[in-house]
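It is worth pausing here to work through a concrete case rather than discussing structure prediction in the abstract. The textbook approach is simple: state the sequence, then state the predicted structure, then interpret. We follow exactly that order.
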Amino acid sequence: MDVSRPYTAICPTLDTEVLATLARTSRPLTGREVARLTGRSSHGGVLDVLNRLSGHGLVDRQEAGKAFLFTLNRNHLAAPAVDILAGMRTELLNRMRRAIDVWEIAPVHVSLFGSTARGEGDTESDIDLFVVRPRRVSEDDPRWRAQLEDLATKIESWTGNRAGVAEASEDEIEQLRRDEPLINNELRSDAIVLGGAEISDLLGPE
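Step two, the predicted structure:
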């Protein structure tokens, strides 16, 4: 799955990008604003898509002086499908959180970091997790290992992307706090907590 634009797994077109952009807000947008938010330099191409979707009734168009404002018509029969496509990233986060919530051995911390957390990357990108193991649990504990392997398997099944797990023990976190390696800054700036302690509580302030 393209981790920056997961909806392209279903429909890799400009139409889908435009709809996903409109689905993320209830604020009316001009064609130029939609083009900017989709990262497209061709305002004309985006405007053509908006006008076509308006013809289908999926996008509402209203005059605002010399411009038009566009919003997703959430009463349209197709609107729920648009919301599902636009919400794929959120659904991935929710599925990972639910999986972690039922672990037999609760982690000290689990977070998503790297390109997926930043909304970057592509179909070749790993989905990187930072996992902190409780002090009392051995690295080789079969129950602990089974949890990690099960989550990694589920992530690949959900997305097609490999899960990359960076694991540390609770004791090793104290070393990270002292040494301040580069990963600490990446975790503080990008990590999305999926379970356990907050990054700031774990690593301390920058």
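Step three, interpretation. The CA atoms of residues 84 and 159 lie 15 Å apart. The first helix runs from residue 14 to 23.
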